[in-house]
Amino acid sequence: MTVLLTGATGFIGRQLLRLLSAEHDVVALARGEPPKALSDHGTWVRQDLASPLDPAKLPAQVQTVVHLAQSERYRAFPEGAGDVVAVNVDAVAALADYARIAGARRFVLCSTGGVYGFRDGYAREQDPVAPAGFYPASKYAAEVLLAPYRDLFEPVVLRPFFVYGAGQRGMLVAGLAQRVLGGERVTIDGDPGLCCNPTHVRDAARAIAAAVSVQRLPGVVNVAGDEAVTLTQIVTGLAAAAGVQPLIAHAGEGSPGDLLGDNARMREALGVTPQVALHEGLREVVCELRS
């Protein structure tokens, strides 16, 4: 099977590329040159998806498209809004048209659990969405845009929740770990703060790889870990892994709600059960930052 993978040099993409290239012919899209460690994993195409897609660079036929790329300016709102729309929405439209012409059977779109917004309890795939911000709103726009193609190929939407792991920078767990290791006080909205179920990057990659290969799939699948923890528990766990005392302050009256993803469909439809326990993943993060 030929698989077109965007975002192949990203945090999840690097893990996913290794899994996919073991079983499929992968055409990997990236903004720049591939790292040496990945250069043998697939055929590489240089393409910045913040610019218009050039289908002439892509294979004439492909069985599956996996859109994992995201804008580098995902946090720069409103200044980076155009870049976010280009990668999260415009590129999906262009890739969907390419998939149609190339005879693809499936299009796997990596969205985000953030489309559900903050709420009490676990979000299930059939629940209404309420994106809390521009970035998740752009992801949901891509989901809506892809849906009408269902008569031409199979759209599959994955909604990951708080993917983390060694080597990540700038995201929730990585940012908390850097502050803990730096001896900084961590201020959390509410006590004990937002509750979530983080997904280790290796488990997220396994879920996406399964979405490429599994025969029949529902249209939307949450990708989430098994362990529901508060921000206070995450900081405490990182401090324990680092062998330091956590410095935590609580502010405000409480968090706006939880971001928990029900992962029953991931287990049943994708056949993927999270394998990396949270305490193991947090220890990996701490060890990598220290090294």
User: How far is the N terminus from the C terminus?
Assistant: 38 Å
The number of helical runs is: 8
Task: Compute the number of strand runs.
Answer: 15
Low-confidence stretches are: none
CATH class value of one domain:
Alpha Beta
Overall pLDDT level: 95
Characterize the overall form. globular
Q: Radius of gyration in whole Å, from Cα? A: 19 Å
CATH-assigned fold name of one domain? Rossmann fold
Largest sheet: 7 strands, parallel
Determine the fraction of residues in helical runs and give it as a percent range: 25-40%
- Strand residue content: 15-25%
Describe the protein.
The protein has a domain at 2-161 and 200-224 and 262-275: 3-Layer(aba) Sandwich (Rossmann fold), CATH 3.40.50. The protein has 8 helices and 15 strands. It has helices at residues 11-21, 81-101, 134-146, 172-181, 201-213, 231-242, 264-269, 278-290, and strands spanning 2-6, 25-30, 43-46, 64-67, 106-110, 122-123, 154-160, 163-164, 186-189, 195-196, 199-200, 220-223, 229-230, 248-251, 260-261. The strands form 5 sheets. The chain has a 7-stranded parallel sheet, with helices on both faces. Helix 2 packs parallel to helix 3 (134-146) and helix 6 crosses helix 8 (278-290). The longest helix has 21 residues, at 81-101. It is globular and about 55 Å long.
